Structures are given as structure tokens and as C-alpha cells.
Amino acid sequence: SSSRICIELSRSAEGSCVLAMKQKDMQCNAMQWYRLMAVAWFTVLAFAAHAGDATGRVQNIPRPRNSVMTPALARKLAAWDRSQRQEQRACELAYRESRNDRAAIGLYDIQYKVLLDTPEVFGVLMAGDVYCGGAHPETIYAGLTFPTRSGTLLNPVRALDLGIQSAHKDILKATLLGPVRELLLQRNRGPDGTPDCIDLLESLTPESVGPAAVVPGRDGLHVAVKSSRVVASCFGEVTVPYQRLQLSLGTVIQRLSGNRD
Questions:
Q1: pTM exceeds 0.85, yes or no
Q2: Could you give the count of Cα atoms lying within 13 Å of 175 in the half-sphere of its Cβ?
Q3: Measured between alpha carbons, how far is residue 138 from residues 30, 40, 82 in Å?
Q4: Which ranges constitute the DSSP H helices of the chain?
Q5: Could you tell me which of 133, 154, 152, 156 has the C-alpha nearest to residue 224?
Q6: Which of 187, 179, 259, 251 is closest to 216 using CA atoms?
Q7: Radius of gyration, CA atoms only, the chain
Q8: 1 Cβ partners below 8 Å, 6+ apart?
Q9: Are 214 and 159 in contact (CB under 8 A)?
């Protein structure tokens, strides 16, 4: 029999729609589990259907405090802000078309976290809850790493030789995927984790892991792994210490700031 899953749907103070799956000690058969999941998805879609009450938030990407705000970096940050507002408008249009309702708005809630702010490199992680129509809402991530001199948007996975570019995503090398998988397993084996995620995480391969947003921080490389909404609680953001990657903060800054257009 499958472990019973208690699905809790809540709305955060910011108005985001959050699906939390918590492991309970009780047992139930597979049919009960599927019924619970069906009820949960119906509730998710019902919440999403009312997302037109508010657009969510599209914050401006934070500006650096310690990094040098060169003209090139200022242009890149401003261009990113414009692109996110365009994405919000496209999301609203897609949602209206899916609902056949010109007044519907959908959900596009974007927030940022500054992870590295030095004179040479500026690094930010973007996370968002998005519902533009379709089967279910999704959580999106983007890693934004800029050398301040050139303002170029860099991919640390490639710049640090931790992944291989493919058609749709970067395939993480075992050097990075191994620690990421280990940290996710530790989280899900803990008291606040989801034990049902263990088998999924143990079977991760470089090809099967979802797209990852990677941003350097002072404490290590931050990796946020995207997944389907059904197993979103299994993934999320982890921080891989630089020593696990045989790197140091100084080395990372040097390599990233040395990249040019």
C-alpha cells in the first residue's frame, strides 16, 4: 500500500498559491491515495481559477549595493525588468484566452534573492509562482549572474565547467549533481521532509534531473531544481559548499569576472 499523503493548500501572505505535501504515519491503499490526489488537484485548479483577483507581484530585480553599477550592468538589469513585465503581460493574455474571459488575469508572482554582491560579480536567484492557464500552476527559477564590468549574463554551470550544454538545458556533471542529490535526500529524510521523495531522488541521473538555476553565493553554489508541481516538494533550492566542488569563493569570482562578451 502507498503511504498516505495529506495535501494542504494554503495561500501565503503574498497571495501565492502553495501546495505542501506532508507525510503522515497512517497507511491507506492506492485507490485512497489517488482519490486524495484528485481532490488536491481540483482544489489547486479552483484556486488558480480565482487567481484573476490579483496579478501577483513582479518586483524589479534588486540593484547592487557593493558591486560596481557600470553602465553595462545597469542596462542589463533594466532590460531584465522589461522582459519580466512582458512575460507577465503574455501570461495574462494566455490566461484570458484559456478562460475565454477578458477580465481574467492569472498569476505571475516573481521575487528575488541577492546571493552575491561583490565589486566583481553580482548574483541573484529569481523564484516565481506562475499560472497562465493549462493543467496546473508552476514554480519557476532563474539564476542571474553578472560580471559587473561587462554586464554579461553568465551561466556559472558552463563558466565553472560543472555542466554540459544540451538543446533544452544544462546537463549537470556528477561533480555538481552528486552533492545536490545528497543535500535533497538529507532534507527529505529529516522531520520536515517527504519520505516518498527518497526513491525519486535516489534514481536521479544527469539526464533526468530538471532544469536547474545555479547562482554563486558567499557560502557556496546555490542550486534550485525545477520539477513538475506533483513532486515540487522533493526539490527546491540547496546550497553546495564550495569545498565540495574543489572551489573557493575567490576562485569562483575570478573565473566569473574573467569572462567577457
A1: no
A2: 14
A3: 26, 15, 21
A4: 30-49, 71-99, 156-159, 174-189, 198-202, 249-257
A5: 156
A6: 251
A7: 20
A8: 27, 28, 29, 30
A9: no
Among candidate residues 43, 47, 38, 78, the one with its CA nearest the CA of residue 62: 78
pLDDT of residue 258: 81
Quick one: pLDDT at residue 114? 96
- Picking from 8, 114, 128, the residue whose alpha carbon sits closest to that of residue 56 is 128
175's CB contacts (< 8 A; 6+ apart) are 162, 245
Provide DSSP, 24-59.
EEEE--HHHHHHHHHHHHHHHHHHHHTGGG----BP
Amino acid (one-letter) located at 206: P
Find all residues with CB under 8 Å of 6, minimum gap 6, and list them. 21, 22, 23, 24, 36
CA neighbor of 235 nearest in space, from 196, 201, 206: 201
Tell me the per-residue pLDDT of 115-162, one tens digit each, with 9 for 90 and over: 999 999 999 999 988 888 877 788 889 999 999 989 999 999 999 999
Question: What is the rounded CA–CA span in Å between residue 33 and residue 213?
Answer: 32
Strand, coil or helix: 107 = strand
Strand, helix or coil at 4? strand
Q: Which residues of the chain have pLDDT under 50?
A: 1-36, 38-54, 259-261
Neighbouring residues of 93: CB distance < 8 A, sequence distance ≥ 6: none
Query: Residue 72 is placed in which grid cell?
Result: 553595462
